[in-house]
Each structure stands twice: as C-alpha cells, then as structure tokens.
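Hello support,

Our group uses your service weekly, and this is the first time we've seen a run hang past the timeout. The protein is Oxidoreductase. I'm not sure whether the cause is the sequence or the server load. Input pasted verbatim:
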Amino acid sequence: MTLNMLVGKFRRETDDIVSIELVDADGHPLPAFSAGSHIDVHIGDGLVRQYSLCNSPADTDRYVIGVLKDPKSRGGSAALHGMLAEGLRLRIGEPRNLFPLDETADRTLLFAGGIGITPMLAMAERLKMLGRRFELHYWGRSLPRMAFLDRIAASDFKDNVRIHCDDAPEDQRLDPDDVLPNPEAGTHLYVCGPQGFIGCVLERARTRGWLESRLHKEYFGTIVSDDPAGGGAFTIRIAHTGAIIPVNPGQSAVAALAAHGIELPVSCEQGVCGTCLTRIVDGIPDHRDSYLTDDEREANAVFLPCCSRAKSECLVIDIL
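Update from on-call engineer: The timeout came from a worker crash unrelated to the input. Re-ran successfully.
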C-alpha cells in the first residue's frame, strides 16, 4: 500500500544532506512506525529508494527523512534533491522495519557513521522515552559535514551522545575500538553507515567476543560488492509453473525475470534492503548481498536476485 504525501518543509542540514518532513496529503494521521523503520520513496521514472525515518516514533502527523546527495548516486538522491519544494507531492510505502530495536535490552550502544545517523536518532528518541540506558556515538569526517548536530544539541538525549570527527579536538578523534566495550549480558550494539565503517565496528566487536545475536547493522551509501551481473550463465525455474528463465552473463536475475514478464519488487538493487527476498526450492545460490546473516546464507533457503547469482546450473525459486 502506498501513501500520498506532501513535503511539509525541508532543511539543508549540510552542503549535501537535506532533511525532509512529509505529511499526509489529506491531513490524515499516519501509520505508526517503530524505531529503525524506513519508507520507500517513489521518486519518478520507476525509481524507488529507501530512507530511514529519523523523527520520534511518537509522532503521528509526520515522517522525517535525511537524504544524502551521493556523488555515486544511481539517480535517486540526486533527483530528490533537484525536485525539492514545499508542497511537492510524493508517493511512499508504509513504514517497514528491517532494523528493529530491542526495547528490552539492559543497555544499548548506537554507532553511527555519516548519514547512518538517521535511524539512530529515532532509536535515541525511543530509548530516552523508555528510560533505557544507552549511548550514541556519531562519527564524521568534519563537523560541517555532520547532519542533525543542532537537533542533537537541543534534544532530551544530548547527554547520551558523543561526537567523533577528524577535525574535532584530539580527545574526540576516537577510533570505534576506543569506545567499544567488552560484551556484557543484556547489551546490544547497533551500527549504521557506510560499508567500511560497519565492517570495522563488527570485526572488532566479534574479536572481543560479542555474540552475533547482539550485533545489528544497516548499511547506508554505495555497497562495494561483486558486480551483480558478473559471472556465468545459469537458469531459473519457477516452481509452480515450470517456466525456465535463462540468466545470461552480464544480466542480473531480476532483469532476466523482468524480461520474461515476472516483475519482482525491488528497491536498493544492491542486496541491502531485502525487498526482493525470494525463496529457493532447489539449487545453490551465489550470495552477493549484505542483507542475509551468515546462518541464512549457509541455509540457502532464500536469496536476493537483485545482486546474487547461482553456483549450480539451475535455481528453482518459489514465486506466487
């Protein structure tokens, strides 16, 4: 289901990041959302992009997102920045949460890199409202490039936040390892940002003995991964019809299916969001995503056809 929205107002947070407030076009209350949720924004020309909600989950009359104008943009963020105007109509999907917050944790650590601050703001709002123990660590290259600093400074959770950046005083230029504690029962860690930042935090947490069940991630920015269209040919068989779909070298599985009239829902097209998650009936996938856990990859029960391919000659998939 999609919602018809208006841009209520927008604000230039940095030279390349804008915050956008969306309100219902007819003034109706909006569907509730939980901390960590995102919305799919239909930008035009078939472009659908995901943006985390960064306002308080207690809000019922607006959604707020932060959009980075990525120099490596595939069209989405650049188009959205170019069309912004108060009163602009946009169509969005209802909030979904692929990065849920465990509200029962004894203590929560939030690690944000760059534009990855957006879901963490909603998490901080929620944790403060619940009276939970938490810390928010926010890294950036320089203070002028870090969005939402004014909002943080004026927030009820400002005392729970530490800012770390390259051009700050020496005591703030910390490596994630400097503020990453040893694992404690009841403590959960959430990390969001560019791939390299997330990889650094998770690697060091695992080295210290953190359990995977207490580590939570969400990627922002361009994912550096194998070319989804790279690799040899294989075939896809649709389980309930028996239809055989060839996937050629230089062609993604999603594109091959679309060429035969089978349109899967897609959003990020980089194996990050999970929108196109598809069940495997038989065959061995070549996982190239950043969404599935290691256990889910080993199970080979699902794959993301926007970026992943096949190790076996044929993948049998379940599409209803």
